Amino acid sequence: MNDLYEINRDIQKAIDLKKPIVALESTLISHGLPYPDNIKVAKESITAVKDSGAVAATIGLINGKIKVGLNEEDINILAKDINVQKVSNHNINLSIYKKENAATTVASTITIASKFGIKFFATGGIGGVHLNAENTYDVSADLYALSENHNYIICSGAKSILDLNKTHELLETLGITRIGYKTNFMPGFWYAKTTNLVDNNFDNISDISNYLKLNSKINNNKSILIFNKVPKENEISKDKINKWINKALIKAEKNKISGKELTPFLIKEINKFSENQTLDANVALIINNANLAGKIAKEFYS
Ligand code: PSU
Ligand code: MN
After folding, report:
1. Residues near ligand 1 with C-beta < 6 Å?
2. Among 2, 134, 151, 263, which is disulfide-ready with 223 (CB 3.0 to 4.6 Å)?
3. CATH for 261
4. Which pLDDT score, from 0 to 100, does residue 238 have?
5. How far apart, in Å, are the Cα atoms of 152 and each of 5, 97, 146, 226, 272?
6. What is the reported pLDDT for 2?
């Protein structure tokens, strides 16, 4: 690439040898989860990818350099430093210019992963259309990045704090296929299912892998979402979640929180209201998704 990028040697080797790789984002670490849970998730996601037979590539910026494969020291910086910027595709260039430490969202992570030919990516929940978007126009850049890159995204749907019906619709409009892994419905992140149907359910990994291989052949240039439900023991009822979301939204409005601050603010407030039930669910589902992503990637490259 060029001197703006630094790629870990094992990851470069895996790319050259066409071995399975799963990219991981870093906004989860800096803005999505509190310390020290964020470090635990970052490390255990890497382990979960490795355990399933693939190579993990956590992406983020250290002193303005885009690193593909953050090491333990880098992860500690992003987890602890309160000055870490949350960068999506509109502002990553500024953090490069200012030589900042910055964490990449789903949008910027998959954009970088794609430049290196890394196809698989795992996260908790993608961004989407926010509630009240008809007035605020707050729609995550994640959705557009998914339609501009051909990546395979393993996640538990879009975050529960969003307007999930509108998010489901816009995914369709943007040409992004919504696949369920053992589910006929798009999951609701902290809860297992919404009322929105997926485009197809696959009950096993080899079917998903065969289907993804076909997509490479037909030059589908959009991403494909593979939905994995929150683990059963961490599932929370939709009613409970919606009560906490409403409380958090009122607080956000009072404090005039908007733009890129909104998602992290709402998640933090809901973790408080739920006495960390949502935090525990968030941790569990991210690691679970990293593990599934590794398994699908391994099958895909075998
Ligand atoms: N999933 C989580 N926590 C998070 C995010 C996802 O469980 O913090 C991050 C992702 O990086 C995602 C971003 O890309 O939130 C979306 O932010 P926004 O709504 O500002 O686009
Ligand atoms: Mn936004």
Report:
1. 25, 27-28, 31-32, 105-107, 123-125, 127, 140-142, 159, 260, 263-264, 267, 282
2. 151
3. 3.40.1790.10
4. 97
5. 22, 30, 9, 7, 32
6. 84
Amino acid 231: pLDDT: 98
- Residues spanned by the domain of 231: 5-300
Question: From the CA of 263, which ligand is nearest?
Answer: 1
pLDDT (tens digit per residue) in 161-213: 999 999 999 999 999 999 999 999 999 999 999 999 999 999 999 999 999 99
Rg (CA), the chain: 18
pLDDT, tens digit, 9 for 90 and up, residues 224-250:
999 999 999 999 999 999 999 999 999
Burial class (CB in 10 A: 0-12, 13-18, 19+), 261: middle
Domain count, the chain: 1
* 182: amino acid identity, one letter: K
Mutate to test the pocket of ligand 1, among 24, 27, 91, 227 (most ligand atoms within 8 A of CB): 27
**246 Cβ contact partners less than 8 Å away, ≥ 6 residues apart:** none
Query: What are the helix (H) ranges across 52-163?
Result: 72-80, 92-97, 106-115, 133-136, 141-148
